[in-house]
């Protein structure tokens, strides 16, 4: 690259950049070539930052690079990704995922060219399989060994395991996460599994297991901690905290980028998703205040849903709005991380001191 930047200034002239691009165009993905041309046309001063070029080719795009593309003087002239013909089944699937999750055409093309399915979306699939396996295994265990098939979440035998969060056992820190592997019934498990697969898997395909796993686990932990603060006498089961974090983040991202999102029937699908979530949340509220069949064991709390939504519309939205961007460069990211950290510390101290100070009458330990 020395011949293009003999003075080692860190910049390349757009003319030389175009010559370099044309001489190597046959080796580039067509959509990546469009981005490079847009980068060249976005600089009115006739120079391109060499680091921007390096970041582009290594899939590390900065905010300044994104702004250069979005505000460039040249519009991407080729047809939209949706209009391309002759794609294989896997290519159509990748294109569908891109239009389901990304609001900008340039990001959709970037994702389409860059996605290799390596690694596959293992996190959401693994969590879903573990949840289903645990629920079925516990049901069979109670039925075969204890001679009683137990579905009721308030049944003492259901609560007597090392996974469910119970206020009497709140010192066992793993329960703030492992409660996701237990559910309040087949319908509870079924809805969470469907949402995790339909929403979580495409999001993981685009944003990766690390980011989506972070949002999911943050929603799970926020859900159980929210219960320990706001509904102190109730146990918690189900993965609704993590599920609602992902779904609320996805829906909020669609609303905030309404004109750019090109997924089909988005208004109808949003309405269906909101209705399903509202019905499930309403069922959880009703169940919480319905008299227990096995007093004094209460029904599980619904507050975990709200904790998940809070994570989704804060941390989750920042993750989904910054595809291929460094989160640590986003001021909102640090604001929401700080808020989340403060909440976790507050909840920890609350669990240590508040239960004793308030002298609550807790349900008996399982």
Automatic annotation (TrEMBL):
Gene3D superfamilies: EF-hand, Rhomboid-like
Catalytic activities: Cleaves type-1 transmembrane domains using a catalytic dyad composed of serine and histidine that are contributed by different transmembrane domains
Entry GO CC: membrane
Keyword Nuclease (UniProt): no
E.C. code: 3.4.21.105
Pfam family, one: Rhomboid
Domain Peptidase S54 rhomboid: 171-321
Enzyme class: hydrolase
Molecular function via GO: serine-type endopeptidase activity
Name the record gives this protein: rhomboid protease
Species annotation: Neotoma lepida
